[in-house]
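To whoever is on call:

I kicked off a structure prediction for a single chain this morning and the downstream step that reads the tokens threw a length-mismatch warning. I double-checked the sequence; it's 591 residues and nothing unusual in it as far as I can see. Pasting both halves so you can look.
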Amino acid sequence: MSRIRSVATSAAHKGREALEINRRTVLAAAGAVSLSAGIGYALRPTGSEAAPAAAEEQPVAEGRKAPAAALAPYTKGTTLVSVAAPRNSSGYRRLGDGAGWSRVLRSDLAAAKSGRESRRTALAAFVQFTDLHLMDVQHPLRLEYVRAHDRHAWRPHEALTVPGAVSLVERVNALRGAPVTGSPLHFVMTTGDNTDNNAHSELEWFMKVMSGGRITPNTGDPHHYEGVQNSGMKLYWQASSTVRDQDKALGFPHLAGYLAAAIREVRSPGLNLPWYSTVGNHDALPLGCYGSHADPYLAEAAVAGKKLMSVGDAEAKKLQDSIRNAQDPKGSGYRDFLKAHARSMRSVTADEKRAPYTSADYLKAHLDPAYQGLGPVGHGYSSANVAAGTQYYAFRISDDVIGISLDTTDAGGHYDGSIGSVQLAWLEKTLRENKDSYAVVFSHHTGKSMTNTRPDPAHPSDRRHTGAELVTVLNRHANVLAWVNGHIHRNLITPHKASNGNSFWEITTASHVDYPHLARIVELVDNKDGTISLFTTLIESAAPHRTDFADLSQTGLAALYRELAFNAPGASKALAGDPTDRNTELVLKKA
């Protein structure tokens, strides 16, 4: 989301621009930087729901400095160099270093002109995280038992989401610059599903992963894991026991001490860049699908001392179908399902930290000074959002670029999204008022996954709009370059061109909970020939590709996280996308 001027037409010019960027970095660290410096202070609230107060200047934490500009091209630590790949061809697959993915030129929306490499000006470089799904795996409301019908409904690696996410932070911190231009990376944006089950425990872990701190990924009994992986049930990988479960039959290892290691304290250094946050359905809704008006019984069950771990195939299918088809947006049917299986539940340690959080709680956590990290204060959100009850905002990235973070979750229930009329009008007004700036739009949902137009119970008159309608709005504005999102857990890049000649790229990035656990660097450049290029480069976490079953350290668990995900029964190897959806150059006509 941040387009920062740094011209690269000659070595001398590059040097002057690098000095200018570094000057801005120093000013940012001192908290004395203007709106136009690309640090991402929120724009003044606009639209009918905006609070009257102007956004505040937001000093960033001292002690960490953004990396200095590097010589281009800079590919170390990216999938251009190497990607995890299997070392054996059958059974449980051990991973090692594989060949990198090359960059693919896409000229769907404009022709690429020769000589642009020597002319281009770097406008922005940022990192996208999406679908971290930090999981409280012992939470009583989780649906692991649906695996009785759908083997992908529970993943053997789910207990390792926190060390896996910390390793991704470590990868970003180790990068010296943007791969193509060598520009400093200016911020990280998360595009939703930062948490998995709308639980306070998960929200705390997410904030600490991003901003730094000590995390104990455990709830309930402070000393022992209590969940499906020590249940003795063959339906789940019983990693620390000798039970011959379904996954061990496929070659999954027996790892003594695995569960004790999985709930051990993890330390995150926090990002050495400012970071921003976009909300997803798993952040806003219990289980990612039940509405803001969910049955109160679910909140009570979340903190209680009973957990359902097993049901039959037919019952699992019926529950899964009701969720997929949005037949139970309030969770009343799920309440009845749990009550009907009360005698089958197992006792676990009750814990108030598992309580669901509200949208206000989500905003206040981002505004908490304890989680400021390298800033900005609120990570995009402001007191104006709290006052208005909104979770969308715009911010100034540079003199030439704004970023816009949307809330596409539907509080009426269901995991697919939509956008309300009030927010859509605010978006159009923001784009119109900033027509002289390029715009990068962020959301959780993709265009094709915004088909759920169930009314928001708190705002029943605020009509909901689909992704197709959002595309129409974005295509009305020539300054929109990209729409960056997640949700579908797959890499996909889609061109959008309107009859008026306007066009933009929709960049969808795979999750960090399903293999191949990727994040994406996006660079914006002006080719100085009437075209703009967007470069996308995927990155893995910093964990080594090879695993050592005897290594249950934080780094060892992060490496194991990737390998277990690769081997997860039912896991799709297509989530990495086609080469045209991975490392790319995406060309656009300049408005």
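Update from on-call: the warning came from a stale cache, not from the record. Cleared it. Sanity check on the structure: The two ends are 18 Å apart (CA to CA).
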